[in-house]
Amino acid sequence: MATIIPVFNHHPASIYDLSWNFYSASCPSAEFMVRNTVRSASSTDSTIPGKLLRLLFHDCFVEGCDASVLLQGNGTERSDPANTSLGGFSVIDSAKRELEIFCPGTVSCADIVALAARDAVEFTGGPAIQIPTGRRDGKVSSASNVRPNIVDTSFTMDEMINLFSSKGLSLDDLVTLSGSHTIGSAHCSAFNDRFEEDSQGKLTLIDTSLDGAYAKELMKQCPASASPSKTVNNDPETSFVFDNRYYQNLVAHKGLFQSDSALFTDDRTRKQVERFAEDQTSFFDSWSRSFLKLTSIEVKTNEEGEVRASCSSTNA
């Protein structure tokens, strides 16, 4: 059974705008209902936890954790090509529908996204942590805000540091939250910059930081002729388990993305990668702290936002 790890120190300033057990009076079963929805969806589709975790990142890094990524329509974040491969929306919508039956107009979509990602980590073997709630849903969602605010898989270490720093996240948070790649999958196009196609249509490895045998396996799964929809697991060993294998893969030069490999090849982050590779408890403890900061990025509370009736559209 997972251990619940409450985290009370080193909170970012915005976390004080949220509350522990925010729905204890207005909707006591809110977290339970979200939890059950995530559990049910994950039991029938093992890719759901990874999708929910990625959805949270793409929400919080753009406009803050305000469910702006859920809004549909032309020119919204969700319509940007960088977000077309996102998933897990149906799980959030399902939880919202149930909550609207029992607690209408009470639980925000932003809180559902954060809670669902929290539960997804626990259900795949990660730490069970408590997070505060009380986020409000944003009313602004612009595709033009997406690319400048999310990590590209080809990013250098300096680019990642600068982006994370702009969100109030430290170098420690960067290494820790990258551990989300221990579950989930990626399209071949996300790492094809590590290979080069010759005149015969065959791929050759050009990124020497990648293990040769692993590179061959990737080229086998993702040949130059691969469908744009083709995906591979982020973690080739335990792809549906939230553990520290991601860091062990980095040490073995088996990071799927260039941005993954940079964590081990850069002197500023190598020791932390090695520590997490050797000690899963250390990773889980750090994850609990960093996840709390992630889910508190630029949150909107009270009159700064709203509680949407439907997660895909703002209220009239």
Salient structural properties:
Peroxidase, domain 2; two-stranded parallel ribbon; Peroxidase, domain 1; metal ion binding; 316 residues; 39% helix
Chain-wise SSE layout:
Elements: E1 4-5, H1 30-44, H2 48-60, H3 89-102, H4 109-123, E2 128-129, H5 157-166, H6 171-177, E3 185-187, E4 195-197, E5 203-205, H7 212-221, E6 231-233, H8 245-251, H9 258-265, H10 270-278, H11 280-294
Parallel strand pairs: 1-2
Antiparallel strand pairs: 3-6, 4-5
Helix pairs in contact: 1-3, 1-4, 2-4, 3-4, 6-11, 8-10, 10-11
Family: Belongs to the peroxidase family. Classical plant (class III) peroxidase subfamily. Belongs to the peroxidase family. Ascorbate peroxidase subfamily.
Catalytic activity: 2 a phenolic donor + H2O2 = 2 a phenolic radical donor + 2 H2O
Cofactor: Ca(2+); heme b
